[in-house]
Structures are given as C-alpha cells and as structure tokens.
C-alpha cells in the first residue's frame, strides 16, 4: 500500500507531462517496489486521488507501476470522491460507477446519473396529468351516462350512442404502436402536449353539434378525443418510473390512474344533473351546450398547465432501476420490444387477464344507464350516482393497492386476491340488481367497484415488474389494447343479451369471463425484475455500506503500515 503525503498538492499537468519520469537524486536509494496484483484492475474511468489511499487488495492497472518515480498512466484520471473497494464490481449499480453513468442528455447537458434524487416537481407533473386524464375520461362517459336522453335528442338508436363510447376503444387499437414509438422517440413532454391539445380540440368541436341533425359532428369531436386518449392511457406507469423513487412508484401510478377514474365518476354524476330528461329539444340543446362549454373551458386551461408544468424528465434519476435504464442503449425499433414482450409467458397471461377484467369494466360503465333504467324506470340521476359509487370506491381501492404494493412488493398475491374479489363482487351485484331496492344496489355496486376499478393500477405496475427494462409505455399500451378489444366485444355482446334476454343474463355473461381471468392470474409467476434491479444496491443501505467500507479500509491500512512502512514524504527526498 502506498500513502502519499497529504501536504502534496494536486498537480494540473497534461497527460504528456504525467507520463514523463520524475527526476530523482541518484544518491538516494529508491524504496522497494510494492508488488501489485495484476488480476484485479480498477475501472479505466476511476482512479485514486493523490490524497486518498487505495485498499491493499486492489492494485492499479497491471501495466502501471506504483513506484514513486513513475507517474500514473495518462488515461487514468484522478477523482477525489471515488475510492476503490474490494467488493465493488463492474456492474453499473456498484458504488464506483460515476464515470459509467455520466451521460449527455438530449438537451446537451451532462447528467450525473450516479446521484439518486427525487424532484419536487414530480407531484405537480402527476397532478397535471391526472387532471387532463380526468377531463378526457369525462368526455368518454358523458354520453353513456344519459344514453336515453342523447338517443332522444339526436333521434338515433341506443347502439349509435353506445358507439360514442366504443369509439374510444376502437381508435386505441391501431394507434397504439405509432404512439408508443413517438413516446420512445420524443419523450413524455411531447406526448403530454399532444394528448392534452387533442383533448381540448375535441371538446371545442362538440360545441358545433348542438342541433338534433348534427350527430356526425358530435361523433367527430368524440373521435378526436378518442385519439387523445391513446396519448394518455399508457402514461401512468411511465410517469411513475421516470419521476418517482423506488418506494413511490406504485403510489404515483395509482394517483395517475386516479385522475382517469375520477373523470369517469364525474361523468356519471354531472351529465344527469346538467342535462335533465325533457321532451323539449330546445331546452335539451341549451343544457347540453352548457355542459360542452364547461368541459371545453376546463380542457383549455389544462392544456396551458401542461405547457407550463410538464418536463421531459428530472435532472437526476429518482431510483436505481431508472438510473440503470438510462445507461442502456435505446432500441429505435418499436417492433423488437413487442416481439420480446410476447416471448414472455407471464406477460402474455397478464395481457389476457387484464383485458378480461378491464373490458368487463368498460362494458359495465357503458351499459350501466340502460341496466338501471330497465330495472328502475325514470332513475337516470340514480343511475349516474351508482356509477359514481363504483368509481369512487374503485379510486379508494386503487390508492390502497398502490400504498400496499410500495410497502409489501407482493404484486402476484395482491393482483390475484383483487381479481377474485372482483368476481365475487360482480356475482353479488348481478343477484341484487333486480331486487327493487336501490340502496342495496348502491352497496353491492360500490363493493364491486372497489376491487374492479382498484385492479387497474395493479395491472400496470405488475406489467412493469414482469417486463423491466422494456419501455413502460409499450407494456402498458399492450395491456390497454387488450382491454379495448375485450371492451368492444363485451359491450356489443352484453348489450345484445340485455336487449333480448334481460340484465341478469348480461351480467352472468361478464361473470363467466371474470372467473376465467381469475383462474389464469393464478398461473402468472412473480418474476419481479425491476425489484431485483433496485435491490442490487438498495438506496437505504448505501450509507451503511460506505461507513462499513471506511472502517475496514482504515483498519487494514493501519495493519499494513505497521508491518511495512511505505509512506513517502518530502523528508525522504
């Protein structure tokens, strides 16, 4: 071991000057050379500061002599804050990797990815996202919540009004891959701006449909809003991973999904209040206009907030897993990740089970007004309140699930239990809907919603765990494609069953597929890849490891120094 004098100052010399030998008085004998272990070498980007002592078991580069008369290799830099450690590996998550994880961002500034730090802006980002996601979800369900009123106003069939909801599902399927590619190429901010802008545009287009013969215009506005939804649905898990720490990602994802669910809840509650049933089409046009103007104004305000608040990513990575993902070479093709994902059996099972559960939720939300009116005529307002109860209960379920996952990391077990309870809740709701007691329906619908809607963020986070380090946008996008496909199938099928055979058989139809989904969920293995990456060097143990290494180095340095003094000072020269 070689200790240099702490009084010596660090020299600012060029590599050529460093490589030149030092002049030494020939009358002064040189100290004996210290043997070095050539089997262990330091990372080429990391060396020991002249004032810092290296661990005795770690040598310099095998081609570099440690004799005091010979300088360090010119390719080795001196960093004052990095020390060698016998337990450190070349894996990027080790403590001596500052050189490996320093990169230049797309904005052109260097970023020290070795510093794990969360940004205070993260809460503003997820809040703004939740708000414009809420606005978009409101526009999805606002027609279905008062299906019979819009049927009367536009003089179209109930199936045509159902398509105002199903167009959201249909548009998503072909646009997923292009939007996923845009997310990978241009990042979060561009996707957020595009989604909120389209949402705002669609809301203003609908204001041109306030006449009974202008149903095609309201359909056009809804199509634009459905395109905006493609830029929204895949974002929660991506925002959570990019902006939040390892112990916050599930909670953040739940908050992001929370906004979408809150929008659906408001979409069930507000339209029946703002647009009460009436035979006067002029009054209906006035009431519908008020609703459309309100949502257009809110959408515009949210678009402005996205411009101000939304940033691409924080200055420093918020978690170890995110830091490692920055160091990976991005795949410019969006087909290759999809091919890799579909080779993952656990992910394929999750795609199927998520689609069954969420598709059932979409069908139930779209057809809820019709089911309630058939059993309780004239109860449009209570139909909206039942939908509100389902969503509010589901938001609490989503928040509790997110907090529980952040603490327990039991993704497989939690997902399976929630899925089974969704099935139980659906069965109970089916049996109580026709009992002619609305208060019972409120209770059973709320219980079902707590688990059915609470499952949504669970699926997103479980998918990220199973597919890390693949893009969160692609994995969550594929989940949503499955949900849209099953949503269209279930909505059309259940609608026809309800029309021909009643609500009981229509709900039993959904129960059968939820039972299938619960069974398949049991076969998913808990291959939590993101958690393994975070546990490679857990943030909460870094300080403890550093202190332990310092103590060990001091003890070993004292032992070696006492046996063979090798300290060089000005007095020796």
Helix content: 55-70%
The CATH topology of the largest domain is given as Growth Hormone, Chain: A
Global mean pLDDT: 74
The profile of the biggest β sheet is:
2 strands, antiparallel
> Quick one: CATH class of the largest domain?
Mainly Alpha
* Domain unit count: 2
Structural class category: mainly alpha
Element string (H = helix, E = strand): HEEHHHHHHHHHHHHHHHHHH
Annotated CATH homologous superfamily of the largest domain: MFS general substrate transporter like domains
Kindly provide the radius of gyration, computed on alpha-carbon positions and rounded to a whole number of angstroms.
Answer: 31 Å
Total DSSP E strands: 2
Count of helical stretches: 19
For the record, the CATH architecture of the largest domain stands as Up-down Bundle
Q: Which of globular, elongated, flat, extended, rod-shaped describes the shape?
A: globular
Low-pLDDT stretches are 1-110, 538-543, 561-573
Give me the side-by-side strand order of the main sheet.
1-2
GO biological process, one term: heme export
Region (Disordered): 1-59, 535-573
InterPro entries: FLVCR1-2_SLC49-like, MFS, MFS_dom, MFS_trans_sf
Biased composition (Basic and acidic residues): 538-558
């Amino acid at each position: 071991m070689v200790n240099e004098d702490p009084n010596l100052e660090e020299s600012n010399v060029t590599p050529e000057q460093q490589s030149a030998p030092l002049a030494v008085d020939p009358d002064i004998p040189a100290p004996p050379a210290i043997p070095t272990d050539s089997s262990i070498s330091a990372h080429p980007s990391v060396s020991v500061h002249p004032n810092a002592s290296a661990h005795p078991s770690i040598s310099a580069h095998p081609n570099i002599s440690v004799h005091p008369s010979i300088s360090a290799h010119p390719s080795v830099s001196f960093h004052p804050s990095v020390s060698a450690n016998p337990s450190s590996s070349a894996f990027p998550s080790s403590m001596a990797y500052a050189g490996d994880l320093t990169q230049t961002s797309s904005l052109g500034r260097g970023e020290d990815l070795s510093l794990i730090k969360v940004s205070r802006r993260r809460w503003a980002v997820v809040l703004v996202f939740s708000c414009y996601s809420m606005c978009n979800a409101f526009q999805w369900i606002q027609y279905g919540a008062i299906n019979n009123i819009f049927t009367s106003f536009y003089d179209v069939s109930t199936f045509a009004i159902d398509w105002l909801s199903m167009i959201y599902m249909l548009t998503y399927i072909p646009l997923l891959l292009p939007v996923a590619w845009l997310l990978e190429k241009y990042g979060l901010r561009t996707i957020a701006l595009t989604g909120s802008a389209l949402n705002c545009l669609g809301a203003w287009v609908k204001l041109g449909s306030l006449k009974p013969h202008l149903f095609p215009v309201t359909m056009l506005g809804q199509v634009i809003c459905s395109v905006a939804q493609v830029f929204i649905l895949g974002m929660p898990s991506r925002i959570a991973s990019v902006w939040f720490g390892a112990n916050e990602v599930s909670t953040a994802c739940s908050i992001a999904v929370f906004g979408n669910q809150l929008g659906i809840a408001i979409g069930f509650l507000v339209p029946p209040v703002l647009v009460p049933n009436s035979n006067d089409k002029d009054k209906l046009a006035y009431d519908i206009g008020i609703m459309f103007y309100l949502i257009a104004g809110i959408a515009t305000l949210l678009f402005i907030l996205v411009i101000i608040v939304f940033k691409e990513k924080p200055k420093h990575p918020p978690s170890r897993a995110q830091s490692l993902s920055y160091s990976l070479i991005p795949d410019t093709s969006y087909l290759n990740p999809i091919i890799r994902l579909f080779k993952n059996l656990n992910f394929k099972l999750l795609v199927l089970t998520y689609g069954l559960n969420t598709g059932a939720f979409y069908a139930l939300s779209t057809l809820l007004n019709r089911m309630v009116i058939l059993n309780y005529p004239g109860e449009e307002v209570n139909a909206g309140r039942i939908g509100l109860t389902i969503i509010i209960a589901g938001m609490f379920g989503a928040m509790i699930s997110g907090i529980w996952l952040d603490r327990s990391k039991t993704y497989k077990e939690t997902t399976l239990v929630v899925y089974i309870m969704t099935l139980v809740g659906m069965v109970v709701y089916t049996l109580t809907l026709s009992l002619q007691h609305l208060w019972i329906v409120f209770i059973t619908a709320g219980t079902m919603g707590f688990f059915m809607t609470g499952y949504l963020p669970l699926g997103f986070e479980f998918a990220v765990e199973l597919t890390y380090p693949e893009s969160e946008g692609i994995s969550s996008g594929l989940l949503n494609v499955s949900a849209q496909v099953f949503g269209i199938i279930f909505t059309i099928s259940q609608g026809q069953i309800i029309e021909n055979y009643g609500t009981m058989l229509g709900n039993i139809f959904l129960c059968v597929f939820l039972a299938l989904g619960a069974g398949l969920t049991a076969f998913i293995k808990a291959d939590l890849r993101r958690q393994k990456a975070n546990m490679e060097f857990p943030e909460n143990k870094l300080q403890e490891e550093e202190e332990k290494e310092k103590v060990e180095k001091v003890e070993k340095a004292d032992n070696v120094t006492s046996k063979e003094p090798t300290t060089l000072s000005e007095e020796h020269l």
